[in-house]
Amino acid sequence: MKSTRIVLSATALFAVAAFGSSAMALDVKKSIDVAAAPDAVWKAIGDFCGIGAWHPAVEKCELQQKDGKTFRLLSLKGGGQILEQQAAWDDAAHSYGYTIVESPLPVSNYASTLSVAANGSGSTLTWVGTFDAKDAPDEKAIEVIGGIYDAGLAGIAEKAK
User: Largest CB tally within 10 Å, which of 13, 31, 57, 102?
Assistant: First the structure.
């Protein structure tokens, strides 16, 4: 059984309704249930640059090291690049976090975590991000990030079969 959920923080929702744009950061949370065990799903995600193997929008991922920090440069299908910095990595907890350094996406101050948790005999994959809208309405930024998460989670679920 697959399920997908989106969460917009109550504070951000109130700000959008009251003022037309958020005074607070926006949140998107998407999850999908898969039949595979957490270890198998985590293995399917691969390393920090493993996103190139499971996200349908990523053509290529290049791992980079600079000043003791780990970055990935994502080349997108159809053009464009996103530079992300690894913020956390926890093999035991099956999760990693990252921030966007540079991108064409309509967001700024972006931080995200991708995690895998046991769910019965299967797993739940969760991708959550916090960000501000940049050069776009809040609703558009939420739609873009939500679409990226949906496509990526579906790609992981397919690879983890």
Answer: 31
Among 7, 18, 28, 9, residue whose Cα is nearest residue 107: 28
Q: What is the pLDDT of residues 68-97, one digit of tens each?
A: 999 999 999 999 999 999 999 999 999 999
Question: Is residue 125 within 8 Å of residue 153, measured between CB atoms?
Answer: yes
Residue pLDDT, tens place only, 5-20: 333 333 333 333 333 4
Residues 55, 152: contact at Cβ < 8 Å?
yes
Spatial separation of the C-alpha atoms in residues 77 and 63, rounded to whole Å: 18
Cβ contact 7:27 at 8 Å: yes
Name the CATH code of domain 10-159 (choices 3.10.20.30, 3.40.50.300, 3.30.530.20, 1.20.1510.10): 3.30.530.20
Task: Summarize pLDDT for 19-61 with one digit per residue, the tens.
Answer: 344 457 999 999 999 999 999 999 888 789 999 999 999 999 9
Contact, 66 vs 84, CB < 8 A?
A: no
- Of 144, 118, 131, the closest CA to residue 9 belongs to 131
Within 10 angstroms of residue 72's Cβ, the number of other Cβ atoms is 21
